[in-house]
Design brief:
Length: 293
């Protein structure tokens, strides 16, 4: 099989490396430049006319990642490629899938429409898209691939067998249920309110007794860590013996790791959908590249 031509915005080097090493992809020649005012420019170093390229990019903040992705897709189209297959390890802005206050827009829809423009993109593969609503905004077909099986495999390899799986908010309940089924554990969930943006207030844990239990908290992402820290404190105060966390996307705004640790999390499992240069030993990074193979 001829390997697909892979172009990237360089937001996910570990994923890019694995895809190329698999032999299914060949790195497309491309050169990025940044002008004095901060504008990006890409120059393709090979013919793309008539081929269907694969593009690996992310919409993780800062917004440069989105800008680079759009510029790359435009360069491919301008040079005659067919619409690309877009691999998105993380689709940022997905949480803005409805206005939560009067006067707000729906940024998830905006970016889904721009990225899913049929002239640039034929299909999208995305890892753990935040909500089904966000998925409906894309004008092209979207395959949502789940990282939870990879995280669960990593937990099993580390011989971690949770007795209770807890969703820190209502949105995480389906994930917690699936995970609990796989581990033969019970399911609990917390109630979450957001009094202000980026502030999470977590109520008590319901559905399962956590006292003296090994508890696994699962969610799709950690941003400021507020949700996780709140849930961990609630579960720890309820007498849990040990708290482990498995989350797909680690945004880690404002470096919440020391507070997460201090709240009582013993081990944290995340994927490399969002890369970080250095993480402490109690954080295990699970590669997601195989979801794209
Ligand atoms: C919310 O719906 C998400 O699933 C996460 O729980 C949330 O976005 C995490 O954000 P933070 O870490 O800032 O509480």
């Amino acid at each position: 099989m001829t390997p697909s031509l892979l172009f990237t915005t360089s937001t996910n080097p570990s994923i890019e490396r694995t895809l190329v090493q698999s032999g299914n992809f060949r790195r497309g020649k491309q050169e990025w430049r940044q002008f004095a005012d901060g504008e990006w420019c890409v120059r393709l170093g090979e013919r793309v006319r008539g081929i269907e390229p694969v593009v690996l990019g992310s919409t993780v903040p800062p917004a440069d990642s989105i800008v680079k992705l759009l510029i790359l897709l435009d360069a491919l189209r301008e040079n005659g490629s067919r619409p690309a297959t877009l691999l998105l390890p993380y689709f940022g802005y997905a949480r803005q899938d409805r206005p939560t206050h009067a006067g707000e827009g729906v940024a998830a829809r905006l970016f889904a429409r721009i990225l899913g423009d049929r002239t640039h993109v034929r299909t999208i593969v995305v890892v753990d898209l935040h909500s089904p609503t966000a998925r409906r905004f894309f004008p092209v077909s979207v395959t949502n691939v789940e990282a939870m099986p990879l995280l669960m495999r990593a937990l099993k390899r580390a011989r971690i067998q949770p007795e209770v799986v807890v969703a820190p908010d209502a949105g995480a309940i389906p994930r917690a249920r699936a995970c609990a089924r796989a581990f033969g554990a019970t399911v609990g969930w917390c109630r979450k309110n957001r009094p202000r943006p980026n502030v999470a207030s977590i109520g008590g844990c319901r559905g399962a007794a956590v006292k003296k239990k090994r508890v696994l908290i699962v969610d799709d992402m950690i941003d400021t860590g507020g949700t996780l820290i709140g849930a961990t404190r609630v579960i720890r105060n309820a007498g849990a013996r040990e708290i482990i966390v498995a989350v797909t996307h680690s945004i880690f705004s404002g470096n919440p790791l020391p507070t997460i640790k201090a709240a009582g999390v013993r081990r944290l499992f995340v994927t490399d959908s969002i890369p970080h240069p250095k993480l402490p030993a109690w954080v295990t990074v699970v590669p997601v590249a195989r979801l794209f193979l």
